[in-house]
Amino acid sequence: APVIYIGWHGPDTRKDVKATYTADVFSFIVNLESSKFSKELVDAGLALEASLYYATDIFTGPISIRIVPNPKKIKECLAKLEEHIGMWDSDTYFTDEQLTTAKNQLAIQEKYRMEQTSGYSHSLGMNWAIKDLDYGFNYIENINKVTRDDIKKYVRKYIKDKPRVSGLLLSPEMKKSMNINKFEDLLN
Predict the structure, then answer these.
(1) Distances (CA, A) of 2 to 8, 10, 70, 180
(2) Does the predicted model carry a pTM greater than 0.85?
């Protein structure tokens, strides 16, 4: 199966700490099974898998999308993806319930990580490396502060209409049979 990757430079802990928490919440919302993203890409048969990721970092936290499109509907899948990216900063892209669910689930994950010695020591080390220990100690408090407006600002600042890199992994046979020589061939 083909695999599509798209990436942007996201917020970092030096210049935009607040947006790092927002990125975690928004990525969780998009990846919910109840999300528009999941329903209109995966459930609709355009993709076998579609996920948005953000990794907090001290310099540039990468934002990335990984999609395993239906090989027979790659162009349609990409068109739908672009439609979604265009809607990510709208008031109606996700529900209040989805926002609350994302915050609750992230808090549960963080609490669970704190209960395991190996997970907790890893989190402490990572938080110390990317910012300071308070970044992690205040994680739940800060994700609970994320608002719909914060998400709109995050999407506009880091994703929508921003420079990105896109790539497609294909087998040589699929590349030949689909007549694809470069990523731009999918956009026409």
Answers:
(1) 20, 25, 8, 11
(2) yes
